[in-house]
Amino acid sequence: xxxxxxxxxxxxxxxxxxxxxxxxxxxxxxxxxxxxxxxxxxxxxxxxxxxxxxxxxxxxxxxxxxxxxxxxxxxxxxxxxxxxxxxxxxxxxxxxxxxxxxxxxxxxxxxxxxxxxxxxxxxxxxxxxxxxxxxxxxxxx
Length: 141
What we know:
By secondary structure, the chain is an alpha+beta fold. Helices cover 41% and strands 31% of the residues. The chain starts with 6 loop residues before the first strand and ends with a helix.
């Protein structure tokens, strides 16, 4: 890996738009089916607000994972960043689990005191591809 190269994986740009559209749809359905019941409308608006907040996170911090010669940068909290030097990274694995007739894959980065999990929609690529790129970028010790 070139000393100046940084590779990033980010949320696909269509995902926040879909989440915001879903939030609008939830409010519309809440208004349509509330029938004057404020609780139904409040639940719909609350769910829409949560979905919109999730979309805002995708817009504010779209890059979930980055790698450079020094180590990894991962998302931390709502929109913060945490740098992990290569010496702190103990393992890079892909966890596969069958669920509902489908197999889900999760990229797991074990940094000893913390475990960072990323799915396909966090990375915009398959976890297996990203794991291979991270392993290739890791300096040989």
